[in-house]
Amino acid sequence: MASKRRKGRPRKTGPRHKNGHLKAVMAESPRERAAHMPHRRGLGEQSSDPAAESELGRMRLRNEISEPEETAGYVYGRMWRGYVSTLNAPGTPGEAQGRVSACDGCSDPERRKYCACDLRQRIYAEASRVLVSTGRGVAPVVHAVVILDRSCRYEDLPMLKLGLSALALHYGLMRPLTNQQKRTYRNERSQKHVAATNS
Question: Which of 39, 43, 86, 96 could disulfide-pair with 117, CB 3.0 to 4.6 Å?
Answer without folding.
Answer: 86
